[in-house]
Amino acid sequence: MPTSLQKTRKHIAKKRNGEVNALHEKSRDSMRLHKASMRDLRLQKLSSARNKREQPIVDRVAHFQEGLKESVSKPLDIAAVQELIHAFVHQYDDEYDELRKARRPGRPGSTREDLLKLKIAALETEYKNGFLIPDVMQQDSAKLIEDWEGTWANLTTMPWIKVSSSGQARPADFPSKGIN
User: Fold this and answer.
1) CATH superfamily name and code, 55-172
2) Which residues lie in Basic and acidic residues bias regions (predicted)?
3) CA distances in angstroms from 170 to 45, 132, 136, listed in the order given
């Protein structure tokens, strides 16, 4: 996809018979190039922030997609769903234990250790109150998740549920603001 900087550079080069490198510092063309480059930087920053916010949802769906592919019965029952949720919540336990054991006694935890501790606690709290997952308990939605190719656009069409640690599943809305 061409950026606005490339388009502006091409337009200026066409106007100047192929030379873009001989511009005055405060000329209109250099200002246009600067404005286009700043716009591209701003869009890139917004895109990376959006991707960072969306990544936990994509990771969560990918985890349950793998669980669906490994299971024999395609729509999962509540016990299998809770087992997958437990595996997702405690996926960072090994790394957290390694960091905790590597630390000398009496020393404060590292930043990574603190982040993992907070992430695990947040996931456990969410699981207690209702863990948000795509609906893998219905046949048609399980098929949608199995066929999902990893794009954000298809996530909005999937039905979502919240599963609590007590085993209750209730319908939920798509997490448009992100998770965690």
Assistant:
1) Translation machinery-associated protein 16-like (1.20.1440.170)
2) 16-35
3) 36, 10, 12
